[in-house]
């Protein structure tokens, strides 16, 4: 009995996935703090690691058509353990959503509108996300290709505008980083932009035709990864050595665009494009959280939960970290470690168990 | 009403409810903005304090017509204040201006000579960190006090800061100095080996009017000034960096009397460092195209042999300029060419050793310079208008 | 403080009458639980009572107790 | 206060049942008793019911062989063509030579015999119940009663007077047909019939409104329009129980998908060629008697940017104008908001020289930017409304005075900064470029302005995202409102931002048309090119 009656086509799934991954284009910055000019390698390695894992998500979803993560957990791990894992997932969604909301807040507080009260930004942003979520996943899916197109446009246009200031010798001392730094970088990249797509396990339930799911997920991931790569290459080429000292290097590169008297100081426009991309990611996460919670509590519809969850998320986002530096530090260490089992272990494990126990039995199907 | 309508209504009302929140504090009306176009930083008499002068836009249009000629027609107002740090001084300016400074449109940051000599690294941090400060803002060093530079009223431009920005941009025509913005200065400051550069601006002390001119570059090592480069020395540096865009070279004409003056049209350089049996060699290959734009000798240069000879002389002149700059940098012991970074990129294994005692290694570098100069056109004249003695 | 009350009154006004009319008791209970949590969190935030951040707890759990962490610096 | 609550409760209790209309009219009102064969009695009854209206004329006459049959003709003076009555009804009845000789044995108590042999008007209808008699009488037909017969004959009026067909006021066109609809719905249907001469063109009649009994027609192409769409329209029309339908606007508000949205989901037009084009695309037109505005359903957001003229002109200029229309809609909604957001929140986006000149311009303006913008917009809206309401001659003066007051005087007085005047006037002009979306444009302009004043660019962006979500969730009779853009249908996209040449657009809009109709409205590959014999014709 899946609550969401909405159905999305596999093409829309592709754009949802691409928009989701693109949403964290600004977030690869704290991997830059660790991996400086090898960020592009880390992204490729992260993609290489994340691709099979995401592939396992899709196979799991195709194996249980029309069912979302909470139901799958119940069936695979039995009632009690299934509920525990689902709560673990819900906690993960809640935290990730609050990180993203906080990212928007920090983007505006440090760069664009420093004197606004922080909580005001969060409330307005979460309210708009809540409004989008009340419309249902169908509307988000239909609109997602607009976000992806704007994202790609912005990324490529900034790349072309900055070609004059690019110096491709900044990549040169390859493999200069110690292995532990590279491993941490790869872990971050595979966990944050790509790993969070575990949220799609909730959405793949309402695909109308599941045979193209694998292809569209793969392409969605690819578009997201390509945009991350373009940003990483652009940042390293333009900033070179100074990459490690800025709080948000990709924002700093945009501030360096200086063509004529008009095409300069464009950081606000890029900030807006960034807000739009994160808006899609937050709305998807918000929807996934609401549906997961309503499934856990066995409700008929997730709509009544939307506003209270919004209230909680705003407060969590406001208080979870003290400062952007604290945010970067914790997500680099504890953040990716606590989410590692969720992303890398549980889905393949439940796929394995499903194979062994020959689920889904038609009775409970 | 239907469920859907209620949700739409609820979210819309929720949205407007929020709007009643204490409106946005970062709203600043345009007319209470103090638009800053130039900033000067000088040492103050009291030790440990700095004097910050900010050039603020004064809307003369409104005021001049209103109360006659009170303002002496100056469209800017150099307000200055003292503080222990740059940000402290910036904030204390509000005693005088009543509003916070609006730095987004700042064109240039000029450091006084005394502050540059003592060391910039303490004062540069605010200009990199302030969110309103643009990384594309120019950084300059003034000969004397920065506030004097900012006080001189330019003939054409309304604001001295715009005038300075225009002068700096004019490096393209002579390539005797070059533009350094905050980001470039910061990246050199960060690197362990490269020296930082900044254009030097000074006041020409002729009798009736004193105007500003760019008088070369200043070299810093880890933020501390170590020396100055004259125009020719900077040209040598630009040859190596490949940033020569135009400029004039004077070469003795082949038959000895008079000179041939050439305009550089295009120049490319390729620098490849190489470590051969413990010795670091830098191969510099420069391709240059120029045009014969003037000739004071009466000799007929419009034949291949003469042009060949001039091209060799040109190549020799360029090589001499580069060696001149290299000797000066060796004397200042500052890696202004950025060879250290190139070595870092190519030989990352040996880099640890090089980095530690770079100051000893740098003077021992030797350059192999290979210049290929070509004269591609002689503009309108083929032969000089002066009749050569032979034909008379 | 007033905004908090206003906002949460508004949320209450919009959802609860609908839920009661449609007799969705299960949803109503779930809604009210989350509503109370949200309200208390909001109250604590407005009254500047320090709210323990879950991530600090996680950090403490993972780094100090389990000792798994990447070398710093 | 107490009364108010009572009324509220009563309203809510009745709301769902909405058969409120049936209870409260008196039982005897719809007169379903049969007509009595005695002529005098039935005339008494008619006079009794209609004694209030003096324009009813009852003409009694005798006819037939030596005048032994008594008849009566009842009609409303203004609505009937007197000359037709004399020539076609009374003349044959009273002076027909055949009747006079008496050797004819027709039984005049049967209306059919009279209708078939005597009366030379085609449109007439036999009526037995008094209620029908009265309905027809009030609808403008003249009633023939004969003593001794239980039936009456209702003779429809011939040509009803209607306005001549002229160019519609709202949608003027440079190239293209100039004819517009008129108030008489029969003429409108004829106009459409002349455009679509196809047997599949169906016209379904509805009579809605207890008092007004307005004729409403749904016009659609049978095998192209989606039957579910037509069914949906029927259901929604039958649901309407109201006293009167005076204009198609009533219908629009009763049957639209989401009454709380500021965006119209039903388009209306006065031009038959535009309505015909939409019917051919699979839409259904709703024509209401008494108004030249015809509703077309379902509507898509992009339609308001398409004018009929785009398809008659060659594609290149049409595409440029189409892009200009989109830009001007954006300017008209976001213009003031962006100006305020830039000057108040994000001054670093403005180039330095411009910023200095704006600062000088705003030197003596007392209000904050948002107040100034609000004032200007408000005055502009007042002026626009005044211009529309006043008769043509006075309207021009309002425009001129407004421009003077807004432009010169307020700037000199230092109330408004010169650049704000420029911004608001461009917004004003831009808002006239897309007439179909003026209502949403005006409201959005104020909303975004408030958002810009409070949260600057961030507020505007959040407003835009909320509007986008709202638009994407809207449906108009089953078709997603942003159809070719949001569900991303490439074949539809050919006609949105730019208008591809006609021969590239053979497909019918998929989201509107029935799924198993053939998807080509014209044979594909009609690329016009000079005729080339396939052999070695000289190029």
Distance between the termini of chain B: 109 Å
Distance between the termini of chain D: 89 Å
What percentage of residues of chain D falls in helices of 4 or more residues?
40-55%
Helicity level of chain B, as a percent range?
25-40%
The biggest sheet of chain B amounts to:
9 strands, mixed
In terms of per-residue confidence, which ranges of chain B show pLDDT below 50 for 5 or more consecutive residues?
62-71
**Range of strand content of chain B:** 25-35%
**What is the count of helical runs of chain D?**
19
The count of β-strands of chain D is: 12
Biggest chain contact: A-C, 33 and 36 residues
Count up the domains of chain B: 2
Strands of chain B, total number: 13
Strand content of chain D: 5-15%
Quick check: average pLDDT of chain B?
82
- How many discrete structural domains of chain D? 3
Using brief descriptors, characterize the structure shown.
heterotetramer; C: 73 residues; mainly alpha; D: 539 residues; alpha+beta; 3 domains; five-stranded antiparallel beta sheet; 19 helices; 12 strands; 47% helix; elongated
What would you note in describing this structure?
The complex is a heterotetramer of chains A (365), B (392), C (73) and D (539). Chain B has 392 residues and is α/β, with parallel strands linked by helices. Helix content of chain B is 36%, strand content 29%. Chain B has 2 domains: 194 residues; 154 residues, GMP Synthetase, Chain A, domain 3 (2-Layer Sandwich). Chain B contains 15 helices and 13 strands. Chain C has 73 residues and is mostly helical. Chain C is elongated and about 55 Å long. The termini of chain C are far apart. Chain D has 3 domains: 125 residues, no CATH class; 115 residues, no CATH class; 165 residues, no CATH class. The N and C termini of chain D lie far apart (89 Å). Chain D has 539 residues and is α+β, with helices and mostly antiparallel strands. Chains in contact: A-B, A-C, A-D, B-C, B-D.
How are the SSEs placed, and which strands pair?
The complex is a heterotetramer of chains A (365), B (392), C (73) and D (539).
Chain B: H1 3-19, E1 34-43, E2 50-57, H2 60-66, E3 76-83, H3 86-92, H4 94-97, E4 101-102, E5 108-111, H5 113-118, H6 121-129, E6 138-142, H7 146-151, H8 160-169, H9 171-174, H10 182-190, E7 196-203, E8 212-221, E9 224-229, H11 231-241, E10 248-252, E11 259-276, E12 279-295, H12 304-332, H13 339-346, H14 348-356, H15 358-364, E13 366-377
Parallel strand pairs in B: 1-4, 1-5, 5-6, 6-7, 12-13
Antiparallel strand pairs in B: 1-2, 2-3, 7-8, 8-9, 10-11, 11-12
Helix pairs in contact in B: 6-10, 11-12, 13-14
Chain C: H1 2-21, H2 25-46, H3 54-66
Helix pairs in contact in C: 1-2
Chain D: H1 2-17, H2 20-24, H3 39-49, E1 56-63, E2 69-76, H4 82-95, H5 97-101, H6 111-118, E3 124-127, H7 130-138, E4 142-146, E5 152-155, H8 185-195, E6 201-208, E7 214-221, H9 227-239, H10 248-255, E8 267-269, H11 272-280, E9 284-288, E10 294-297, H12 309-312, H13 315-344, H14 352-361, H15 369-389, H16 392-412, H17 418-433, H18 438-473, E11 475-476, E12 479-480, H19 490-493
Antiparallel strand pairs in D: 1-2, 2-4, 3-5, 4-5, 6-7, 7-9, 8-10, 9-10, 11-12
Helix pairs in contact in D: 8-11, 13-17, 13-18, 15-16, 15-17, 15-18
């Amino acid at each position: 009995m899946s609550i969401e009656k909405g159905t999305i086509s596999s093409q829309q799934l592709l754009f949802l996935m691409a928009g989701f991954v693109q949403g964290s284009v600004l977030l690869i910055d704290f991997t830059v703090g660790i991996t400086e000019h090898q960020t592009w390698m880390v992204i490729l390695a992260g993609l290489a690691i994340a691709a099979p894992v995401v592939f396992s998500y899709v196979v799991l979803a195709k194996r249980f058509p029309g069912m979302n993560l909470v139901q799958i957990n119940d069936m695979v791990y039995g009632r009690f353990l299934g509920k525990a894992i689902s709560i673990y997932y819900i906690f993960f969604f809640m935290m990730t959503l609050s990180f993203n909301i906080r990212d928007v807040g920090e983007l505006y507080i440090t760069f664009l509108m420093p004197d606004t009260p922080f909580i005001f930004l969060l409330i307005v942003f979460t309210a708009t996300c809540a409004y989008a979520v009340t419309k249902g996943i169908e509307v988000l899916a239909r609109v997602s290709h607009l976000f992806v197109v704007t994202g790609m446009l912005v990324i490529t246009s900034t790349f072309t505008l900055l070609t004059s200031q690019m110096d491709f010798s900044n990549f040169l001392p390859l493999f200069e980083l110690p292995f532990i730094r590279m491993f941490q970088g790869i872990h971050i990249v595979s966990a944050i932009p790509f790993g969070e797509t575990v949220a799609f396990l909730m959405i793949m339930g309402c695909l109308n035709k599941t045979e193209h799911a694998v292809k569209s997920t793969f392409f969605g991931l690819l578009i997201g990864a390509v945009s991350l790569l373009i940003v990483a290459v652009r940042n390293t080429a333009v900033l070179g050595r100074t990459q490690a000292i800025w709080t948000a290097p990709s924002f700093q590169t945009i501030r360096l665009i200086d063509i004529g008297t008009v095409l300069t100081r464009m950081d606000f426009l890029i900030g807006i494009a960034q807000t739009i991309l994160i808006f899609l990611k937050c709305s998807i996460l918000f929807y996934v959280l609401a549906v997961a919670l309503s499934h856990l509590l066995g409700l008929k519809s997730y709509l009544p939960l939307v506003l209270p969850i919004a209230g909680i998320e705003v407060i969590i986002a406001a208080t979870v970290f003290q400062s952007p530096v604290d945010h970067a530090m914790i997500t680099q260490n504890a953040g990716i470690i606590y989410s590692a089992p969720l992303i890398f272990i549980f889905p393949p494990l439940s796929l394995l168990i499903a194979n062994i126990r020959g689920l889904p039995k038609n009775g409970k199907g | 009403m239907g469920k859907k309508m209620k949700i739409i209504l609820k979210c819309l009302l929720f949205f407007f409810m929020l709007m009643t929140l204490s409106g946005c504090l970062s709203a600043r009306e345009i007319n209470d903005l103090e638009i800053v176009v130039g900033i000067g930083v000088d040492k103050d008499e009291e030790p440990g304090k700095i004097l910050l002068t900010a050039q603020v836009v004064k809307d003369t249009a409104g005021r001049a017509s209103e109360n006659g000629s009170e303002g002496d027609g100056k469209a800017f107002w150099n307000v200055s204040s003292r503080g222990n740090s740059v940000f402290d001084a910036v904030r204390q300016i509000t005693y005088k201006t009543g509003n916070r400074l609006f730095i987004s449109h700042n064109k240039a940051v000029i450091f006084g000579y005394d502050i540059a000599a003592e060391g910039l690294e303490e004062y540069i941090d605010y200009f990199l960190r302030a969110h309103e400060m643009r990384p594309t803002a120019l950084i300059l060093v003034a000969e004397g006090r920065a506030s004097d530079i900012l006080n001189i009223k330019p003939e054409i431009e309304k604001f001295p800061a715009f005038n300075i920005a225009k002068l700096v941009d004019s490096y393209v025509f002579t390539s005797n100095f070059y533009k350094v913005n905050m980001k470039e200065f910061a990246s050199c400051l960060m690197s362990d080996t490269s020296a930082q550069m900044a254009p030097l601006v000074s006041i020409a002390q002729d009798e009736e009017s004193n105007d500003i001119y760019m008088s070369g570059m200043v070299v810093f090592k880890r933020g501390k000034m170590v020396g100055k480069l004259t125009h020719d020395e900077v040209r040598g540096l630009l040859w190596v960096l490949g940033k020569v865009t135009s400029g004039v070279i004077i070469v003795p004409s082949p038959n000895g009397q008079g000179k041939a003056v050439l305009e550089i049209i295009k120049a490319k350089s390729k620098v490849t460092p190489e470590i051969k049996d413990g010795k670091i060699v830098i191969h510099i290959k420069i391709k240059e195209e120029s045009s014969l734009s003037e000739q004071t000798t009466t000799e007929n240069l419009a034949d291949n042999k003469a042009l060949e000879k001039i091209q060799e002389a040109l190549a020799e002149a360029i090589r001499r300029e580069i060696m001149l700059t290299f000797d000066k940098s060796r004397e200042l012991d500052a890696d202004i060419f950025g060879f250290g970074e190139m070595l870092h990129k190519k030989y990352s294994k040996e880099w640890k050793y090089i980095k530690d005692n770079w100051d000893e290694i740098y003077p021992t570098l030797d350059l192999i310079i290979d210049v290929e100069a070509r004269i591609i056109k002689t503009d309108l004249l083929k032969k000089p208008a002066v009749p050569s003695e032979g034909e008379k | 403080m007033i905004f908090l009350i206003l906002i949460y009154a508004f949320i209450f006004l919009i959802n609860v009458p609908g839920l009661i009319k449609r007799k969705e008791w299960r949803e109503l209970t779930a809604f009210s639980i989350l509503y109370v949590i949200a309200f208390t969190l909001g109250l604590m935030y407005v009254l500047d009572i320090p709210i323990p951040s879950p991530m600090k707890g996680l950090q403490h759990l993972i780094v100090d107790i389990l000792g798994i962490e990447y070398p710093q610096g | 206060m107490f009364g108010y609550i009572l009324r509220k409760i009563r309203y809510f209790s009745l709301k769902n049942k909405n058969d409120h209309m049936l209870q409260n009219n008196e039982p005897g009102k719809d007169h379903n008793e049969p007509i009595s064969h005695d002529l005098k009695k039935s005339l008494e009854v008619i006079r009794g019911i209609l004694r209030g209206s003096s324009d009813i004329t009852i003409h009694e006459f005798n006819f037939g062989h030596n005048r032994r049959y008594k008849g009566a003709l009842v009609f409303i003076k203004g609505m009937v063509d007197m000359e037709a009555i004399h020539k076609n009804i009374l003349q044959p009845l009273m002076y027909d030579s055949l009747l006079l000789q008496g050797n004819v044995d027709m039984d005049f108590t049967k209306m059919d015999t009279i209708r078939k042999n005597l009366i030379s008007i085609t449109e007439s209808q036999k009526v037995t119940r008094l209620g029908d008699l009265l309905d027809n009488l009030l609808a403008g037909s003249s009633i023939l009663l004969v003593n001794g017969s239980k039936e009456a004959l209702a003779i429809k009026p011939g040509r009803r007077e209607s306005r001549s067909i002229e160019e519609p006021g709202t949608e003027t066109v440079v190239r293209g047909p100039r004819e517009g609809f008129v108030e008489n719905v029969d003429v409108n249907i004829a106009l459409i019939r002349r455009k679509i001469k196809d047997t599949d063109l169906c016209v379904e009649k509805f009579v809605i409104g207890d008092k007004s009994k307005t004729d409403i027609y749904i016009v659609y192409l049978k095998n192209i329009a989606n039957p579910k769409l037509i069914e949906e329209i029927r259901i929604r029309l039958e649901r309407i129980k109201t006293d009167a339908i005076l204009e198609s606007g009533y219908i629009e508000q009763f049957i639209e998908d989401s009454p709380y949205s500021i965006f119209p989901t039903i388009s209306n037009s006065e031009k038959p060629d535009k309505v015909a084009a939409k019917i051919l695309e699979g839409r259904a037109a709703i024509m209401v008697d008494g108004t030249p505005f015809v509703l077309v359903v379902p509507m898509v957001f992009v339609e308001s940017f398409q004018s009929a003229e785009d398809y008659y002109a060659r594609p290149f200029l049409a595409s440029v104008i189409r892009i200009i229309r989109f830009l001007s809609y954006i300017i008209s909604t976001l213009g003031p908001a962006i100006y305020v957001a830039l000057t108040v929140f994000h001054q670093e986006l403005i180039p330095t020289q411009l910023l200095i000149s704006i600062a000088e311009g705003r030197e003596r303006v007392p209000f904050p930017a948002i107040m100034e913008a609000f004032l200007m917009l408000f005055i502009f809206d007042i002026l626009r409304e005044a211009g529309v309401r006043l008769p043509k001659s006075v309207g021009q003066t309002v425009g001129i005075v407004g421009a003077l007051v807004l432009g010169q005087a307020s700037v000199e007085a230092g109330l408004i900064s010169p650049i704000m005047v420029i911004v608001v006037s461009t917004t004003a002009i831009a808002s006239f470029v897309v007439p179909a979306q003026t209502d949403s444009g005006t409201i959005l302009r104020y909303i975004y302005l408030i958002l810009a004043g409070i949260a600057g660019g961030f507020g505007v962006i959040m407003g835009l995202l909320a509007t986008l979500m709202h638009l994407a969730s809207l449906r108009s009779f089953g078709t997603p409102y942003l159809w070719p853009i949001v569900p991303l249908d490439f074949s539809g996209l050919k006609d949105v931002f730019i208008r591809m040449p006609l021969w590239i657009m053979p497909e019918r809009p998929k989201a509107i048309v029935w799924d198993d109709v053939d998807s080509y409205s014209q044979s594909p590959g009609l690329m016009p090119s000079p005729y080339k014999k396939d052999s070695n014709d000289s190029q």
